[in-house]
Amino acid sequence: MILRKQNSSASVSKNMADKQKRYEALVHALHADIYRYAFWLVKDKHIAEDIVQETFLRAWKSLDSLNDEKAAKSWLITILRRENARRFERKQFDLVDMDDVTLTDDDISHEGKMEQRELRRHIASLSEEYREPLMLQVIFGFSGEEISEQLGLNKNTVMTRLFRARNQLKDAIEQQSTTVEQANG
Amino acid sequence: MDDLEFRRKLYAEPYTSDEAILGAAADDPSKQQFIDELKQLENRIQSTVHAVPVPDGLAHKLIFRQSIESHSKKQRRGRFHLALAASIAFVAGLTLTMVNQQPEKSDFAAIALGHIHHEQEYTNSANEHVDLNDVNAKLASFGGEIKDDFSHIYFANYCLFEKQKSLHLVVGGEGDDRYTVFIMPRGENEDFVPSFEDENFVGKAWQTKDANVVVISEKTHPYEKGMEKVKENLVFSI
C-alpha cells in the first residue's frame, strides 16, 4: 500500500514535470505571437499583457485537454479571444474609445520610421472584423480556411474581409502620401 | 479570370500559390507588377505588425506566474487538508465525548450499577426502619405505591441520577437478602435495557409512563423470586 502510494505520487510528480515542460515550451514558442495578437486586438499594451497572462494561466490549467501540439496555436487563440470577450463583458462601460487609444497612446511605439508609424495607425484603425482575420494571417500565417475555422466564419466571408482590410490600408497609405505631396506642393 | 477576381484574390492572399493567379501574372506584366506592389505592401504590414515590442521578460512572467499559481494551489490544498484534519479531529472529539457521555446520559443500567457500587457500603449497613407511609409519600411523586409491606424497608431516600431526582430504596426479601430499587424519571433518548448485570450485581428494569424502575440484587444469593416479588409489590398507577 505504502509502496503503491509512493509509486503513484512519483508518477504524479513526473506528470507534473512533463506538464511543466510542455507549458514552458508553449510559452517560449508562442508568447510573442500571442502577445502581438492580443495587442492588435485590444491596442493597449497593459491590457494585452493582462489578457495574455490570463490566457496562459487558463492554458496551464487545462493543458491536459491539449492533445495535439500542432493545435496549440489555435487553442491558445481561442482561449485568448474568450478572455478578451470576458474583459468586454466586465468593462463594457469604461472602455476607452478605440480611436483615442490609437492616436494618443505610446503603445503604438514612436520608434521606427514615420512610414511604419503611419501604417500602425492605419492597421489599428481598421474595424475589428477586418483587423482580426488580417492579424491571424499576418502573425500566425493562417490560411483562409484556418481563419474561417478559428473565427467560425464562412471562408468566403474571411477572404472578403482580408481583401477589404488590405484595400483599406492601401487606400489609407495612398491618401496619406497624396496629402503629404499636396502639403509639400 | 477577370481582373477584379484577380485583385480580390491577391488582396486576400498576397503570397498566394494559386496557379491560376500566378499563371495569369506570368502572361501579363501589369499583373505581375500588381503582385509585386502588393507584396511590398504586405512586407510593410508584416514588419509593422511584428514591430510591436513584446514586454521584457514576458515569457518568464508567464512561467513564474503559473508556478506561483500551482504553488498557491498546493498551499490551498495544504490548507484544505489541514482543515479536513481539524474537522476530523473535531468530529472524533465530539464522538468520543458523546460516547463517553452516553452511558451517563442514556444508559440507566450503567448509572444504576455505578450508583450501587458507590453506595453499597452505606446502604448495606443502613437500617433506617423506614415507615411504609413515608415511603409511599415519596413514591407518590412517581405515581407508585407499595401494595404489600416488605419484610423490611432499610432505606428510602431521594438521590440524584444525572441531576434527576430519583428514589433510592433498599428493601428486604427472604432472610437478610436486600434488594435495591431505583425509581428514576425517564430521560430522553435513553436505551431501555430490561435486564443487565455485572460481576456482582444483577438488575431488572421496567418502565412506567414516566419512570424507569430498576431492581438490583447481589448475586451472592438466589434473586429471581425475590426480584419478582419486589416488582409485584410495587404498583404504579400511571
Give a quick precis of the structure.
Chain A is mainly alpha-helical and 185 residues long. Helices cover 80% and strands 0% of the residues of chain A. Chain A folds into two domains: 1-95, RNA polymerase sigma factor, region 2, helix turn helix motif (Rna Polymerase Sigma Factor, Chain: A), CATH 1.10.1740.10; 110-185, Arc Repressor Mutant, subunit A.
Overview of the molecule:
The complex is a heterodimer of chains A (185) and B (238). With 185 residues, chain A is mainly alpha-helical. Chain A folds into two domains: 95 residues, RNA polymerase sigma factor, region 2, helix turn helix motif (Rna Polymerase Sigma Factor, Chain: A, Orthogonal Bundle); 76 residues, Orthogonal Bundle (Arc Repressor Mutant, subunit A). Chain A contains eight helices and no strands. In chain A, helix 6 crosses helix 8. Chain A starts with a helix and ends with a helix. About 7% of the residues of chain A have low confidence. Chain B has two domains: 48 residues, no CATH class; 130 residues, no CATH class. In chain B, 53% of the residues lie in helices and 21% in strands. Chain B has seven helices and eight strands, in the order H-H-H-H-H-H-E-E-E-E-E-E-E-H-E. Chain B has a six-stranded antiparallel beta sheet with strand order 2-3-4-7-6-5, with helices on both faces. Classes of the chains: A mainly alpha (185), B alpha+beta (238).
